[in-house]
Specification:
Order of helices and strands of chain A: HEHEEHEHEHEHEHEEHEH
Structural class of chain A: alpha/beta
Distance between the termini of chain A: 55 Å
Strand content of chain A: 15-25%
Largest sheet of chain A: 6 strands, parallel
Oligomer: homodimer
Shape of chain A: elongated
Number of strands of chain A: 10
Radius of gyration of chain A: 19 Å
Strand order of the largest sheet of chain A: 7-6-5-9-8-10
Helix content of chain A: 25-40%
Largest interface: A-B, 34 and 34 residues
Chain lengths: ~240, ~240
């Protein structure tokens, strides 16, 4: 099969669309992420390589391949997968481990990192409220290290979380230094500047992570790492 | 005082040097970081604003100011501070909370985030081994959220850590699911791809963070968040 060099090629256009507007399909970049996804049972809709290096993939010239990505990390494989669709109601009703709720977490790297943490610590899913970065953008998918396929993620309104009946907890520096919930609950993390919005905060038990007075706050992904790891540790005992 | 528009202005050159090669002075970007540093007792060597907005600062035109930064986050204040100098031996001998040791952590965002965590959880300092990103680069300083001034950071060889006599622990997926050390110890985190190098790993007690089988590993800053928070929590009890 010949190596594709043209930007008019349909595979190029399809991949570019998935990277720019991941509405239908999402792109996983890098051998490890793509192969892990395939090993986990996901069927790639399209595999594209930098140069002709594998038979099951469409080969682009290095120039064409490099035109696709905004990352400086050299990759030689991109896989296109159907964008997963999950229902926020299903996630909120799944009733086992805590549901992670993100409130205006704008940085796609943080959103992706927290999705990876939700997979690592076996959460029921991730709910994105108003003002969050797109979980399927290339930056978020990259930060999730492939976990975007392993964790149910959906957008919802704060009202849906409030109406779910789940006990509500929020990471907040003014809270009590208590353990996070181990099971059925919603655990809300807010933006680094604004914190959790009042609508949710007023209905929630606020949890503070004990720390020294040398910093004022933690990065939201660091807070999530600490509380989700702790929730998983308690669940296991 | 007039607003400076020229790239030949000495303040512009000095600030650009601190952003490109932070050997003598380091730049803190943003009102919050600069004002927190001043409140903590640090004396800025130079303050520069985007337009004439405060009397104690040199005003640049917005065009000149924007030419300095590679971040997309709009800021209007940069402060220049003397680069802190710490001795690795002093950090390793400080004998109280654990010392964080980073082994080939290449991403400046991760290095900065871990420095912020070391401040939050009151570690004795951060030792950077071969292959780590520069802790004083603008990206790392930004991720540290000002903590770069609050935590002793120094470069060292692995040999210095081994010879310090400190009990050695390493974050490693093949380790035991035990608590991290609460006091005098060195806690090593490796690169996401390569992990902790064998030279240190062989001399260390490996600690695994318990997690589900849904992901293979965590981001190094997430691992650090979990273990350092836990170390701080145990220390307090």
């Amino acid at each position: 099969m010949k190596t594709i060099a043209s930007r008019h090629n349909p595979s190029f256009k399809r991949l570019r669309e998935a990277l720019r507007r991941p509405e239908q399909e999402i792109a996983l970049e890098g051998r490890k992420q793509v192969e892990d996804a395939i090993a986990a049972g996901w069927k790639p809709a399209l595999l594209v390589t930098r140069g002709p290096i594998r038979e099951d993939a469409v080969a682009f010239t290095p120039e064409l391949f490099d035109a696709l990505s905004d990352t400086s990390t050299p990759q030689d494989l991109i896989g296109l997968f159907l964008r997963p669709r999950h229902d926020a109601g299903d996630i909120l009703r799944s009733g086992r481990a805590p549901v992670v709720v993100l409130d205006a977490v704008q940085d796609p790297g943080n959103v992706g990192t927290i999705i990876r943490l939700a997979a690592a610590f076996d959460c029921a899913g991730v709910i994105l409220l108003h003002g969050c970065a797109d979980a399927y953008s290339p930056k978020a998918v990259r930060a999730s290290a492939g976990a975007i396929l392993a964790v149910p993620v959906a957008q919802a309104r704060a009202r849906a979380v409030l109406d779910s009946g789940l006990p509500l907890f929020a990471a907040d520096a003014r809270g009590a230094p208590i353990d996070p919930p181990a099971r059925e609950a919603a655990l809300v993390f807010g933006s680094e500047g604004g914190g959790v919005s009042n609508e949710l905060l007023l209905a929630a038990t606020a949890i503070r992570i004990p720390m020294s007075g040398r910093v004022e706050s933690l990065n939201v992904a660091a807070s999530a790492a600490i509380l989700l790891a702790r929730s998983f540790a308690i669940r296991g005992t």
